[in-house]
Amino acid sequence: xxxxxxxxxxxxxxxSIGKGRLVRFTAQEAGANLSILLFNARDLTERYNxxxxxxxxxxxxxxxxxxxxSDNGRVLASIVExxxxxxxxxxxxxxxxxxxxxxxxxxxxxxxNDWLRSGQENFAVELVRSGLGVRDMMPVVNLFAKVSCDNExxxxxxxxxxxxxxTVTLRTEMDxxxxxxxxxxxxxxxxxxxxxxxxxxxxxxxxxxxDSDYCVHYRPENVRAFENTWEYQLLLGI
Length: 238
Description:
globular; alpha+beta; 238 residues
């Protein structure tokens, strides 16, 4: 392992991670929800695109084999390991107003570090750290969360989906800027603010076997997205 960090409940983090890394997330307790954003670290105008990711892979959930595609048709990261089989790409993140409504009014001036943070604020802070802003807010992936839709189109959050020790591992296919917010899923109906630390570990990944890699060949659309990525990196000499 190269590096590790625990993202505490309500916590946030951002940083650039080079291509060819394994980024492993582990829920330290049951009921985790970790929201993530991804950008091309070399060109922040390129970022994760939820509609393209889902329609290209014919899915409304994410698991092993799926890739997180950019708005330029390239692969930012792939899901190479997953103990859960379902992560939520559609429910989004908590706003300040929704956090206050569900869990009660808190603020830093009174509660200090015990105040209840929202995904909206966490991402706003981390975006600014990288020269971005609130206009760069976009749909997130909620790791460890299961949100399903019924026949009427209503979305449902499964509170029992994530046990303690659940893991999911991303492989970076480009140099990426990763932003994290350990804040509740908006559809979580529990009235107590969840408090589940998540362990983040980064290590070296094995070289991608272009002929047999599971993520590359998960769908024909994945192959094309990887080819776009390799061409982009070849022309840049990276």
